[in-house]
Design a protein that fits this description.
The protein is of the alpha+beta class. The chain has one domain: 2-Layer Sandwich (Tetrahydropterin Synthase, Chain A). 29% of the residues lie in helices and 31% in strands. It contains three helices and five strands. Strands 3-1-2-4-5 form a five-stranded mixed β-sheet. A hairpin with a 5-residue loop joins strand 4 and strand 5. Helix 2 packs across helix 3. It starts with a strand and ends with a strand.
Amino acid sequence: MKVYLTRRYRVSASHRLHTDRYSAEQNHAVYGKCNHPHGHGHNYTVEVMVSGEVDPTTGMVCNLRDLDSFMRREIVDRFDHKNLNVDASFRTLVPTTENLCVEIYSVIRSGFSHAKLEKVRVEETSKNFFEYAGS
């Protein structure tokens, strides 16, 4: 019996969408106002979906304290109130929400062992969100 658990976290971070592969004009044409030299911020909602068998003793897929502790230590503390452009993962990647979603998935997949990671969803605004379930 496989059960899915989804948990939400909040991360406020800034970023500038820019690549050194493009000229200033190309960056502006591709990223528009998101290429502003001083960046801009978002209040992201990060949803993590894990799955597993329900433990017959605890009645849980995984202990929320384990998931919350991991997410706080590895994701929230790393990205909350930070400029994504200075994070090591985005030295060569444009810090789009797509890339942020993939990075969060990668961190969870490599470090959280209490349940199977199914997917990560990152909501950037009320109009757009991104999901990644691995390749």
